[in-house]
Write a structure and sequence with these properties.
This protein is mostly helical. The protein has seven helices and no strands. The chain is elongated and about 55 Å long. InterPro entries: Invertase/methylesterase_inhib, Pectinesterase_inhib_dom, PME_Inhibitor.
């Protein structure tokens, strides 16, 4: 009986140590993401959307900003695909179809700006001083413009005549993109200040 108990205790100790070691390797990057996201506009969403990339991010502010922009880009692509499909739906009112078209244009512009920002942010790794500030300024301007494009998207849905499922659905997608883009901008600004 005693050898079985000793074997069981050793087995449990090994499992405990394995879990402890595992959690300590993940914890620093997870806590880094959590503390960095505390400054974002939507902290819970920020943490939720970036935590799956903790191993890649580690404790790098540059990688955190790049990943946040990649999340924004992916969400923009998903929204663009959704709007393209929605525009083809039969039975839309002419004003709805027009508003969706305008919105699609804004999302496409936003997508282009976020894409440029990701490329520009890569240049920041190789430069310092004034050159770093110049590249970061470009990134900040483009991400800020992308956010404006996303918010402008809903302008075509103004007025009671446009209320309904189409507007609600588009708003949900645009809000989702705008929130992750806003978080990305906050993390980019944070990286710029602390570099």
């Amino acid at each position: 009986m005693a050898p079985k108990l000793a074997t069981l205790l050793i087995f449990l100790a090994v499992i405990y140590l394995a879990q402890t070691t595992n959690s300590t390797t993940i914890k620093p990057s997870s806590s880094f993401i959590k503390s960095s996201c505390a400054t974002a506009t939507y902290p819970a969403l920020c943490e939720q959307s970036l935590s799956p990339f903790a191993k890649t991010i580690q404790t790098s502010r540059a990688q955190l900003a790049r990943t946040a922009l990649a999340v924004s880009l992916k969400q923009s692509q998903t929204t663009q695909a959704y709007l393209n499909k929605l525009k083809q739906v039969k039975g839309l009112k002419p004003r709805e179809r027009s508003a969706i078209g305008d919105c699609l244009e804004e999302v496409s512009d936003s997508l282009d700006r976020v894409s440029k920002s990701i490329k520009e942010l890569k240049n920041c790794d190789r430069v310092k001083g004034q050159e770093f500030i110049w590249h970061m300024s470009n990134v900040q301007t483009w991400v800020s413009s992308a956010l404006t494009d996303e918010n402008t998207c809903m302008d075509g849905f103004g007025g009671k005549v446009m209320e309904g499922r189409v507007k609600s659905s588009v708003r949900a997608h645009i809000t989702s993109v705008a929130h992750v883009t806003s978080n990305a901008l906050a993390l980019v600004n944070n990286f710029a200040q602390k570099h």
